[in-house]
Design brief:
- The mean pLDDT is 79.
- The two termini are 16 Å apart.
- With 289 residues, the protein is mainly α.
- Helix content is 79%, strand content 0%.
């Protein structure tokens, strides 16, 4: 991999887990995720204007915009549900296992068959994911609903990663992000309104957090935008999806370390060990594929 591409992906991987860590435990998680999607529209629009990029240049890849929006919708909602109830150091590594999702979707829907080494990689991912969420003395699956949401988020990540890497062959990242998030904002807003808890107004539910933590929302939005823009730029410069995915795995053990340091989550030794087992499995999947 070219050193420039590797550097972009590495910086992106370092920045990526910061969003989930910053908004973990926020009083208004729906408002936080809606704020981030809205900020991405603003950032992408300003970015396109500053660089003189035609926002309508995405017209030839509209189907990819729609697939990316669908994947992001699943990813955001499932990640929010996961982080609400579970530890970031446990479930973020599972959420970021998108290469596994790509392989499974290929097997189920595209008739792909895989060699024995890849099956070994899949086994390592599953073992790592299992022991990340397992608690001694608890049922086999410590939080089955939370684990299911993490798997849905992983699948959503696989969908939008495939769509984005294909789109970057012909369009500029900021134009693609602009329209993807223009579509994503109303989807998230409608879902949040429909699922609003009783006793909370729609305005408070969707925008209440801006009054209490505006700087946090802005920081989470900006850091995550920069992180994803760097990934799309890496694709645009010719970065191979498999190679890019491998380097991005830096974010997995880093998320465990940051979660323990910043959120005071427990048991760093075991969680770091099993996150590294999961990473090893993903590396095998990517290399063999």
């Amino acid at each position: 991999m070219d050193l420039t591409i590797a550097g972009l992906v590495f910086v992106s991987a370092v920045l990526h887990p910061l969003r989930e860590i910053l908004i973990k435990g926020n009083t208004f998680p729906e408002a936080a995720y809606l704020a981030i999607t809205m900020l991405w529209v603003v950032f992408a629009g300003i970015h396109a204007v500053l660089l003189g990029v035609d926002p309508w240049s995405v017209a030839p890849v509209w189907p990819l915009v729609l697939f990316s929006c669908l994947g992001l919708f699943l990813y955001y909602l499932a990640t929010m549900a996961t982080i609400k109830r579970g530890d970031v150091s446990v479930y973020y590594p599972i959420i970021r296992s998108s290469p596994l999702a790509v392989v499974v979707m290929g097997f189920l829907f595209l008739g792909h068959r895989y060699p024995v080494p890849m099956l070994g990689g899949i086994a390592l991912v599953l073992i790592g994911a299992f022991f990340l969420q397992y608690r001694r003395g608890a049922p086999i699956f410590h939080q089955p609903a939370v684990l299911a949401m993490a798997v849905v988020a992983m699948a959503g990540s696989g969908v939008y990663s495939l769509a984005d890497s294909a789109a970057m062959r012909t369009v500029e990242p900021m134009a693609f992000l602009l329209w993807t998030y223009v579509l994503l904002v109303p989807c998230c807003a409608i879902y949040f309104m429909v699922t609003k808890p009783l006793g909370r107004s729609r305005c408070m539910h969707l925008f209440g957090g801006w009054r209490h933590t505006p700087v946090l929302y802005f920081a989470a939005g900006l850091l995550s935008y920069v992180s994803y823009y760097l990934i799309l730029t890496a694709y645009q410069l010719g970065g191979n999806v498999a190679a890019v995915t491998s380097v991005r795995l830096v974010s997995v053990p880093l998320s465990v370390i940051l979660s323990v340091a910043y959120l005071k989550e427990a048991d760093i030794g075991a969680r770091l060990l099993w996150s590294l087992v999961l990473v090893a499995g993903i590396v095998v999947i990517v290399v063999v594929r």
